[in-house]
């Protein structure tokens, strides 16, 4: 498996993000209301296996010191192999390289596997922020990244 950077306009990113959004809508009963959008200012990483993009995630700057984890997704057939954890580690490294000392994220209360991944990786609950404030299913987390020696 290979983890590589891709532009937000990459068609495989669009396919993965669309699949993620469909799965989220099915999981929350269509109540979330988030649009399927890829933002040009998100820096994406893609996990490639056998020439096929099987997972993605991105980092978007929220401020000078803070990056937000966006669109983390692993195709169902590839789950349970540690891909999400490897991708999360790579995304944290990308955030650090971009000058962020904190990474935050939003996920849904209806996604216990995602919450388990994030908390086991050192993310701690924070108050719901930004566009997620009015969503009763949103939960937010943050992690302070280690400082380089």
Automatic annotation (TrEMBL):
Keywords: Acyltransferase, Transferase. This is GNAT family N-acetyltransferase. PROSITE patterns: GNAT. Residues 3-146 form the N-acetyltransferase domain. PANTHER family: AMINOALKYLPHOSPHONATE N-ACETYLTRANSFERASE-RELATED, AMINOALKYLPHOSPHONATE N-ACETYLTRANSFERASE-RELATED-RELATED. Pfam families: Acetyltransf_1. CDD domains: NAT_SF (cd04301). It comes from the Bacteria.
